[in-house]
Amino acid sequence: MKIAISGKGGVGKTTLAGVMARTLGERGFKVLAIDADPDSNLGGAIGFTPEELKEAVPLAQMEEFIEERTGAKKGQYGSFFKLNPMVDDIPDRFSVEKDNVRLVVLGNIVQGGGGCFCAENVLLKSLLSHVLIERDEYVIVDMEAGLEHLGRGSTAYIDALIVVVEPGQRSFQTAYQTKKLAADLGIKNIFIAGNKVMNNNDLTLIKENLGGLSLIGCLGYNGKVLEADRQGVSPYDIDMQIRAETGQIIDNLEKTIE
Prior knowledge:
Blueprint (H helix, E strand, L loop, with lengths): L1 E6 L5 H14 L4 E6 L5 H5 L3 H4 L9 H8 L19 H4 L2 E3 L2 E5 L13 H15 L4 E6 L16 E6 L3 H17 L4 E8 L2 H9 L5 E7 L2 H9 L8 H17 L2
Parallel strand pairs: 1-5, 1-6, 2-4, 2-5, 6-7, 7-8
Antiparallel strand pairs: 3-4
């Protein structure tokens, strides 16, 4: 299954992506986790140590490699470069691995205006297309809300886009915008996952603001997530509640998507 996870900053999408990757790895599946958020925090949510993450160099920062694969220097505009660079070796060559989970960090592309048609962006989009279409494993992509890294040709292979929301109107608005972007890209299966749910009132608020999307599951408000951040570990490693809730979201996806 190929899963993309999006949502407003701070709602917990990276936490869900990281714990989901670890849960699938614990179940014996090979997982490729792609950090496509400029904040690049997925490694910590999975449970990689700072020392281990030093080996996961963000691809967008690799100037010589970008030039080698595309024929153009990083950040060079208006030049000719390859639109289909070779990317099939990247997940194995530029990743770190832990408990059946392999992590690749895309990194940040500085964009002015409505996007960046530059060598590094073409390389990253080509990589995402490759892993979504060709890789025979679970793929989890931690997106930013804008979905900029997704190319139209690869989105047909996304089995599910999960938009994480918390009980608040700003996160609902981001979910509606993401739904529109996803629909424009042709993504068919779009779900809401609630987070930081403290009581039935929070759950009701989320259900009343789904905007026509299906609720795939919820994570309760959990102080262990903050404690995990303080300790520099994944919530998966210290809390059984988030494991169970995330496992239920995975089970619901598998039942919903044939």
